[in-house]
């Protein structure tokens, strides 16, 4: 869990019921799908979830590769804090889970009213996103190299 976000859930001014609520879901429950609208951020309090992509091979064939599995303490859905775009991935429970569901709009209002708390939390979230972006970049370069080799393009370079 983003350490500052964990402490935020315990902060007396960040009241459960106003800024966030707990939610329990059974195994194999789809929390959201890629393309869905979303303005909530999730903190996984217990259980595990799987993040999957949605890849169209052609008009009729689609696959959902697993991107990663997340366990207790993980934060997901955080892009909702930064834009109003649709969800970029799907998330499904692998086992029963308990979540802290944070309203993104209310969270940002709280940060505006309490910048001494909001800044460290946003910094931690940005550091987490930067780490994920670096991993994604590595995967893209690896896939590019693989594609060049598979199609023998590497021999032409």
Annotation keywords:
157 residues; globular; 4-stranded antiparallel sheet
Structure description:
The chain has 157 residues and is of the alpha+beta class. It has a single domain (3-156), classed as Jelly Rolls (Sandwich), CATH 2.60.120.10. Helix content is 34%, strand content 27%. The protein has 3 helices and 10 strands, in the order H-E-E-E-E-E-E-E-E-E-E-H-H. The protein has helices at 3-10, 104-113, 115-150; strands at residues 20-25, 30-32, 40-46, 49-52, 55-56, 62-63, 66-70, 75-76, 90-93, 97-103. The protein has a 4-stranded antiparallel beta sheet with strand order 1-10-3-8. Helix 1 (3-10) runs antiparallel to helix 3 (115-150). The N and C termini lie far apart (44 Å). Residues 25-128 form the Cyclic nucleotide-binding domain. InterPro entries: cNMP-bd_CS, cNMP-bd_dom, cNMP-bd_dom_sf, RmlC-like_jellyroll.
Give the uncertain stretches in residue-range form: none
The computed structural class is alpha+beta
Q: Name the helix and strand elements from N-terminus to C-terminus, one letter apiece.
A: HEEEEEEEEEEHH
Query: What Rg, in angstroms, do the CA atoms define?
Result: 18 Å
CATH topology: Jelly Rolls
Average residue pLDDT: 88
Question: Terminal Cα separation, in Å?
Answer: 44 Å
Helix content: 25-40%
CATH top level class name: Mainly Beta
Q: Assembly type of the shown chains?
A: single chain
Number of domains: 1
The main sheet comes to:
4 strands, antiparallel
Overall spatial form:
globular
β-strand number: 10
